[in-house]
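Collaborator request, handled under Task 6.
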Amino acid sequence: MKFVQNRVNELFDEFVRIRRRFHQKPELGWKEFETTRLITEKLTEWGIEVEDFGLKAGASALIRGAYPGATIAVRGDIDALPMQEESGLAFASENPGVCHACGHDIHATFALFCARILHENRDKLHGNVRILFQPAEEKGDGAKGMIEHGVLTREPKPERIIGAHVDCDMPAGTIGLIKGPSAAGMDQFEVTVHGFGGHSSRPQNFIDPILSAATLIAQLNMLVSREISPFESSVLSVCQIHGGTANNVVPETVTFGCSLRSFTPEVRKTMLDAIERTCKLHCESMRTRAEVKFLSGTAPLVHDEKMVDEIAEAARETIGEEKIIKMKHPRSGSDDFAEYLSSIPGVRFRVGSANDQPETKVGAHNPRVVFDEESLRVATVVICQYIFNLLR
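Structure tokens returned to the collaborator:
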């Protein structure tokens, strides 16, 4: 299907301009109002059906094929990060303290690009495609919000979902694929240790929450090595701690915040159970009390193996076998794309975005990062080819 590559190449410069417009106007999760307006404006201009799911931020487009068949969903996340851009690009962020350092401007654009190509060729489709422009991925609840608004349950219901993410560790022009776990699940939690405050000179009169918290943190850091098989993996990090107001006053409470990464649902459950149990019992042994609050969570992202093979075939047909990188290990970052996979099978493949310039290799979430725009072309051709292969 050479027409896919040909049309992508014809439209590429137009979509680069759209991407740069997104990049200049970044918006944080659930506040992507201007981004959503531009998306719906372009979809309407091209005659593509915009679905109303009651979302104030985020959008959905439906391409109805000429023939009956399955429905496939495509997800592009659209939100930015709360950080100041330092890339020096001519089209750098115009919004102070907000920038697209994770590449979601490219994701939003390839979703639009796919909508355009698929709509123009809907006479070839035996089935439908729902394109999701998802808000608030960085907040971890954007996918849940879209699911709650019915994007997976309204007819025609998607039977599978595909997405992509730029990757600064891979050269532009390539994609990365892995079967099974692809990205870590992420859970944030906060522990408050309650003691009994007092004068620092009288240890017999106070119950020390600082010592209790300190030894508890040491205990938590042992959990991975003693709760998880050596053939599995998990990462538990204590990232902040707060307690006390003076050098001679023992406080009533100490609070610390943590994040947990896990790659399978089983490991995730084991660790969450162990965290709660350890906090409770350790603090009891020191006459303090632990209050554990789980703040937010994203499931591990586990790919459908058959879909990985199908995407590899689409990539062979478009960018070539030599451009497919078989990833040895999942990434330890997280993505709420995993929420869709609790209902339908899916894959979110990696798209190389690095070139010879050092700023393309510094990694996502860095204020100086630059993404090679060839990643936009590659994501679009592979996704479109995959859909045409399945719905022909």
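The cover message to the collaborator said: "The mean pLDDT is 97. The longest strand covers residues 160-171. Please let us know whether this matches your experimental observations."
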